[in-house]
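User: Hi! Is it possible to get a structure for several chains at once, not just one? Here's what I have:
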Amino acid sequence: MIPASFDYVRANSLDEAIALLGEHGDEAKLLAGGHSLLPLMKLRIAQPAMLVDIGRLRELSYVRDEKEYVTVGALTRHHDVATSPVALASAAVLAHVADQIGDPQVRHRGTIGGSISHGDPASDLPAVLLALGATLVVQGPNGQREIAAKDFFLSFFEVALAPQEVLVEVRVPRSVEWGFEKLTKRAQDWAIVGAVAVRTSNGVGVGLINMGPVPLRAGAVEEAVASGSNAVDAAEFAADGTEPSADFNGSVAYRQHVAKVLVRRALEKVGV
Amino acid sequence: MSILGNRVVRREDPKFLTVGGTYVADLDLPGSVHLTFVRSSMAHAKLLSVDTSGAKAMPGVIGVYTNDDLGMTNMPSIMSMTNEAMTPPMLASGTVRYVGEPIVAIVAESRELAADAVEQVVVEYEALTVVIDPKEARKDEVLLFPDAGTNTAFTLDFGGDDALFDDCEVVVELTLVNQRVAPCPMEGRSAAGHMTKDGRLEFSSATQAPHGVRDALVGFLGLDVDKVHVVTPDVGGGFGAKASVYPEDIVVGWCALKLGRPVRWTETRSESMLGLGHGRAQLQHVRMGGTREGVITAYRIDVLQDSGAYPGFGAVLPFMTRVMTSGPYKIPRAEFGSVSVVTNSTPTVAYRGAGRPEATAAIERTMDVFAREIAMDPAELRRRNLISKDEFPYTTPTETVYDVGDYHQALELALEVAGYDELRAQQSRRRASGDPSQLGIGLSCYVEITNGMPDGEFGAVEVRPDGKIIVRTGTSPHGQGHVTAWSMLVAEQMGVSIEDIEVLYGDTDIVPRGGGTMGSRSLQIGGAAVNQAAVDVVEKAKDLAADLFEASRDDIVLDKTSGRFHVVGTPAISRSWGELAKAAFAKDGNPLFAEVDLASGGPTFPFGTHVSVVEVDTETGKVTLLRHIAVDDAGRIVNPLLAEGQVHGGVAQGIAQALLEEVVYDLDGNPLTSTFADYSFISAAELPSFETRFTETPTPINALGAKGIGESGTIGSTPALHNAVCDALAHLGVRHVDMPTTPIRVWNAINEAGKAGL
Amino acid sequence: MKVEMTVNGNLESHDVEARTLLVNYLRDTLALTGTNIGCDTTSCGACTVLINGQSVKSCTVLAVQASGDDVTTIEGMASEDGTMHPVQAAFQECHGLQCGYCTPGMVMAITSLLKENPEPTEEEVRVGLEGNLCRCTGYHNIVESALMASRSLGVHS
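Assistant: Yes, the chains can be modeled jointly so their relative placement is included. Here is the combined structure:
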């Protein structure tokens, strides 16, 4: 309940945050909404020596309509994504999924950037970004670079952020049709299994939640859809390439079965 | 115009709503130090060494203690019924037997320093083989207590006729898991103690039984009873788990004595999930026999009770299961057997229902299995076997005497409110259409025992010269609303406003004795005692009034609308309660009061019928509860608002067990559900609003005609939901799914039935 | 570290450790013990307060993070003359509390919910309370309280 001691500094600018990360190396962690990091610190699973608070950099909180894309600042809180008229109009899947994260209190604090950078394969947003074919914009001491979502999630709780890099923006293609299916025991739980399907100008993208150590794109399903399969047939490929773990909420076989069911339902919602 | 039976809002609420309750952790104790514990991370191990030197050396750490430092005996065996060789030490000594067992007590200047110091203690363990499964423990191959020579802590029997089922046309057999659950009161355990200058221990505890805490402190710390003062501030729920005294409570007292400073302890939720006792945890084997026409003639249940690492109250709860073996049915022959074993897990304790939900869950599930076996509607099977209302008092085959009831009325009302026939029609339509979303309808008819011990209780009423009424009760409410309910009872007897009544409880200096609040005892014995004290005060007041008016005692009238006494025929000349209180003082220096130690007339037996309606997604196994109907009869209802609240809370917990909650250990005894993130504590999003009704069949056992209601909701609801889920899957060939009916369990059952080609 | 924030309309300024959780700052330093701690995994919501009018779990916010913010706790809900806020009044009317431990969190969560959704359906209230756990009431009367408060707030606004 009580975190181990640490030093705290509030960054007044992004550059200052990046500089502090450089100065303290892996002793320092960024603090945005705090709803991924602080729970770990309270259980003393994480014990960073320094926290760099970027939560007040409100210039990184925005949802913009950029014609072909919707851009979301990394420090936009889930509640603000969920209620953003731009998101609701042009990237409704993002708004809907943001509205399902945790509970209302968590959504008032947690940020899209913080949630994604955490790299938890059980969280909802990464799978959505994969399905959308999103781009992550990160900033480091040498400037900005872009990383495709499919290259961002490296392994269990590990993302492609270099030590001094900060995720600053999420860029998603416009989408209208979407389907999001999540199996949980309770409303506030992490997904036992989840599936998301979106239709963009690039076709239908399908993402899977909690089907492996990283968020996954259901590539075989996407190929089947692209070659004309209906939802039932395409969903048969949902378990391909997945490595779900077994726990008391589900065996491997169960999770793979549920993935097919949820993918089928998500595909039906995008008109497959 | 009687206040009884009315929906009176609680007098307790404004404080809770505006500034919050005052729980132990909220008490202002200047100069206090913080106690915390190092707890075992191993389920079964020898303690090779415990190095406290690092912790002791930390600035701000005041004391670091092991069991040897405490020098106290073990906690006692439960009611002298459990194996004496299995009693728990205050702190682990030599061997740890469950993850979470306290090993070292640390006192520090602040909560933060105490938490930091915990990390500095180094414990060296030598792993021993872990026994988690009670079936394995029963084999006595790996012993938790080598000196005991067995893992069996307690056994019970009733009957043993091998031919019990011989003449039954139909016999069904079932093995059921009544799984381990965690009580999860929103406030965990908490206690604080300090010594006064006169050598008194002032102790505050989040307990359901302050006098029990006092007696334990007296016993363990060697203090005289008048040197221990226990006060229960507001308590954030208990549900039976805070009816036990825990070693940590005693350690708080010990530290207070030793250190001469106020000591406070408040556990974290993660500690509570391991250290606060767990509930249920029975493996049940049942057989039910009867005729093809649906007359049940024989029933036997055998229970394997998981006691956890040290037999607590949970080990002896099969006693209550045995009491309720045959439920509300007139089954002529019933038998019971139980074995309670220790395992390397958290000790089990009383949890809402405490032994009775287990009995009901077993027989109600079996009734549905029997109904299906003879192709009879489950409601009809129950109708044919319920004890009828003219058969009371009714003695069951296990020698329990039920007081009074109308079980058929509750059943018919529940079916009517549910719209049972229409539900069955909807179910048929969905089955015919092959919809992946199927409906399930589940019933549960229950009867349960309240004030099962059965204790008496203390009640006192005093009138002050200013006309205010002081009520003292031996109950210990922690959400049940006794201040409001007892005020209503007293107001009814004395013709005063409830606003003029103060109800005192939870303080062993103010209330000399009391049984606390548990087992749904409070209204029928505590409320009844206060009620009797009020009746007695009215009598005394009439004596005084007769003197004052120089009239005959028989001519004195208490006008309850004005709360004033007068001589019959001359109401204009009256005296108030305050004036009579002054007169009492004037007469012999004593206040106008009455004290009662009300003896119990025996336990009472509330009953009812619950119906659950669920929807099952047969593709994923996910169950959604659509409706829950609860018809409960607790005799006379004093305040329907409070009674409904008890039913709602009980129903939610009962549904939670059937639907979602379970404590899970891996094979090494590591708990997998020891936080609120992992343990599926049910939330508002999983529940509908409930449809509740009361029938009132007053009991002759007490003057109020009241039975307990606190646990009925839990007892009635679990089997209704469980039966509903099994019912939803029955047409797919599923005979039984164990609780909790989580998606994986439901889907596995569907899948296996499908493979069996049914 | 110095923190400065407005709590229930009063400017508060203190020195705290960086690791001090907002809930402990409120309870221990400001003696506002109405806000309770029910878990250690951000699950139960007993610690819910308002930061700048929005519900947050104060156990998962550092006091230093809230420096500069406007915080409201249960103690700040009734008016100066003691009149209960409609949400508080609804709880009493509907018997929405028993032991009271989850209650301040529930009141704050519902206050925030009704600000964002003034006329919620029962379903929306239930899902809106997914982050607030209660063991005593079974939620039935808490939901009734929220719906009643929504009606009373609607009448007066």
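The longest helix of chain B spans residues 522-549. Residues 279-450+603-755 of chain B form a domain with the Aldehyde Oxidoreductase; domain 4 fold (CATH 3.30.365.10).

User: Great, thank you!
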